[in-house]
Design goal:
Distance between the termini: 46 Å
Strand content: 15-25%
Strand order of the largest sheet: 1-3-2-6-11-9-10
CATH superfamily: Zn-dependent exopeptidases
Shape: globular
Radius of gyration: 17 Å
Order of helices and strands: HEEHHEEEHEEEEHEHEH
CATH topology: Aminopeptidase
Number of helices: 7
Largest sheet: 7 strands, mixed
Number of strands: 11
CATH class: Alpha Beta
Length: 251
């Protein structure tokens, strides 16, 4: 049995030229039957280790604000993390935070390759095809993170992450410096953690300004607070794009 490409990736929005392509790699906690449940109970399969709670809703709201297209992953990142290249050990993690993932332990090369071809490849091809059609001026990827990691509370509320292209991140950090949310650069993750794969794979080769957003998921769990997060990020993105356009960095 194989996974249908339509399960692996979701594309939403008009396939027409737009300023920003929004990407949400960890949008889903879906475990298609072809892969089984990896030996995990329902609680783990719905927890933050399996997906980024609230991230898809945030991505949709931002894409709607800018009238832009989004590409989202359709299955759990425990099956394959679409923000990792195939040669990364944690693309198919045997352990995530405190949880062992039995179905990923001692995975055969053929089974690992099946995950790449059925999950990562359709996702990658979808992003590349959308870029060719909509000709975005920038790429923004959207994630959420758990407030407590390995038993330690995280103070940061919003992370603005980047790889070697800091253009959009710099502008957004300036815009959010006096805002209501504790916002930091490359926190709680940074390039050293291997999290900027999508930026390096899709934005840097096309010389597109880019940023990876990380939002603490408790802020996305309640409607009013989530709306405030959306408003703050949308304003910072808009200001960043306007400043880049004024500086001649984008058309």
């Amino acid at each position: 049995m194989t996974l249908d490409d339509s399960e692996a990736v979701v594309v939403e929005g008009a396939m027409a030229p737009c300023d920003i392509l929004f990407v949400c790699e960890h949008a889903s906690s879906n475990f298609p039957s072809v892969f089984g449940d990896l030996g995990l109970d329902d609680e783990v399969r719905q927890s933050h280790v399996a997906w980024d709670p609230g991230a898809l809703t945030l991505t949709r709201e931002l894409a709607k604000r800018f009238d832009c297209t989004l590409v989202a992953g359709g299955v759990s990142r425990l099956l394959y993390d679409c923000n990792r290249p195939p040669d990364a050990v944690d693309a198919v993690p045997a352990k995530s935070e405190i949880f062992e993932i039995p179905g990923n332990v001692d995975l055969s090369e053929s089974d690992r390759l099946a995950r790449v071809t059925q999950i990562y490849q359709p996702f990658k091809e979808a992003v590349e095809q959308v870029i060719e059609v909509v000709h975005p001026k920038a790429i923004v990827t959207v994630h959420s993170f758990t407030p407590v990691y390995h038993g330690k509370q995280r103070a940061v509320e919003i992370g603005i992450l980047h790889d070697r292209d800091t253009r959009l991140a710099d502008k957004m950090l300036d815009a959010m410096s006096d805002g209501p949310f504790h916002t930091l650069r490359n926190d709680p993750y940074g390039p050293e953690h291997g999290v900027t794969h999508s930026l390096k794979a899709y934005a840097l080769p096309n010389k597109l300004p880019n940023v990876m957003l990380e939002v603490r998921n408790d802020l996305l769990a309640e409607g009013a607070k989530a709306a405030d997060v959306t408003e703050a990020l949308a304003a910072a993105i808009a200001q960043g794009m306007a400043e880049l356009r004024e500086a001649g960095e984008i058309a």
